[in-house]
Design a protein that fits this description.
homodimer; 165 residues; alpha+beta; Arc Repressor Mutant, subunit A
Chain lengths: 165, 165
């Protein structure tokens, strides 16, 4: 059974993208990871419409990726800021791979707009693909994405394949 | 100067998401990496509208991530299939981090829907964050995203910060 015979939606990529597969959502996460956590600050920094920001933040809270924390400045009403949960923090790895690709292929002459550093020593951080047997992976051609135990056949795979033959 | 004072668009995340920051685009890349490369096959497997698929594939070709390769089956007109370029192949790392997050947090009781394997030895592949000095990174709190040489101040940062004070 090939990839095309499997249900396109029963996939960890499809499920994750249901939550974060939208440009604004990943930019919101980028800002929250960088300490921009209040609604008004996010709105201004991103240049995003209020209703879109509200909808995306609510979805991230509902998905357990951000939590809303109330705060109050003297003389103003109570407001909220947004902090990543543990599972939210784990999405940093997605942003790191996006940064690495953008730095390599889309930086202008002035160089990469961001550095990702190890706080303890200041050295640049990167994600290295390795296999559980300890081999370093040198290229994408050494990697195979295969159906796992949670894969499901595509609903109409039989009629579809007969159309194809 | 904090993150909020920097131009939100002069960022490798924002630039990369201009190209791939859309659920369909990443699902198309997933299928192409898995060998689903013909228009009709992509359309059927993804359940995507023709015009949306055409638009996304054209954008991926224009961005140098996919190339169109003509093919012809006997008795039919010439058609195209899509293959990742070298820079396209490098986006596999983004998909690997998305798979890892989804497998960990969104798999149902039957287990992860996909396995990512090293073709040479069959062992599972994962991305390990390390710094250039050789330290393993244990948690997101050990990582700092900082402005690099290509960062730009936000356009209206002065008036914005005075409004905030």
């Amino acid at each position: 059974m090939g990839w095309i015979d499997l249900d396109s939606r029963a996939c960890s990529i499809a499920r994750t993208l249901e939550i974060v597969g939208d440009r604004w959502t990943l930019l919101i996460l980028r800002d929250v990871f960088n300490g921009v956590r209040r609604f008004a600050d996010l709105q201004r920094h991103l240049g995003i419409a209020r209703n879109v920001l509200t909808q995306r933040l609510t979805a991230l809270v509902d998905a357990g990726i951000l939590v809303r924390i109330p705060y109050r400045e003297p003389g103003t009403r109570s407001r909220h800021e947004y902090e990543p949960t543990d599972r939210g923090h784990e999405l940093l790895s997605v942003l790191l791979t996006i940064i690495a690709w953008g730095d390599r292929h889309l930086a202008d002459a002035s160089g990469p707009p961001v550095h990702v550093r190890h706080t303890a020593c200041g050295a640049d951080v990167r994600l290295v693909p390795v296999c559980e047997a300890g081999h370093a992976i040198k290229s994408a051609s050494e990697v195979l994405i295969e159906p796992g135990p949670g894969a499901r056949p595509a609903r109409r795979s039989s009629s579809v394949s007969s159309q194809m033959d």
